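Still learning. Any example?
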Amino acid sequence: MLDVEKISKTLRKGEPILVFDEAGREGETDIFFSAKHVSNSSIRFLRKKGGGMIFIASDNLASTKLGLPFSHDIFESVGKISDDFTVVRKMLEHTIPYDKKSSFSLFINHKDTFTGISDYDRALTSKSFAELLEASVSLSDSESQKKISDSFRIPGHVPVCIADQELVKARKGHTELIVSLLKLLNMNPVAVGCEMVGDDGNSLSPENAKAWASEEGYLFLEGQSIVEAYL
């Protein structure tokens, strides 16, 4: 059973939590921070303790309100434009071994970043995105889309993953798990995460991730417990 109050306090203090999806899926543990409370030290923590790709996990409002497309849809459209993009069409024919579709959208940088890759730059991009998504609720779709196009540029260094509109009812990826959890906690539904990779170069086993979390004093959550609490 989830300790909702403890998780909420942890995330609101700008501290990380660990989320394991499930053995039959990716079988990976991701470290997450609330994007609204992220800092440059949070990004550094993800780099050093995670080792995978640092990404934004966002509520579906990023698609319906901000107008961000899914990468698959972009590539599908590009592949139809010209025979010059035959390779794109061919590469789309491959399937994902652990899921039916990808949650990836655009790779973004905040307009005030330099290269976009430093801890400070990625923190600015992530925090600003979370704040913009929150503000968009009280704006029209066109106003929201103008704000994001005025504030961010592409291509960038922070990929945005967008949760399914039905969240864990439809898909149980890390994006849906953390967004479902944040909504359960009545928090800004945007997180910054990173997969944990072991010293052997493979995904860190859930046993080792859980042991590390226990030793270091971090919360380790099973994806199934989030699904049960949310549903």
About this structure: Strands lie at 17-20, 29-34, 55-58, 104-110, 152-162, 190-195, 219-222.
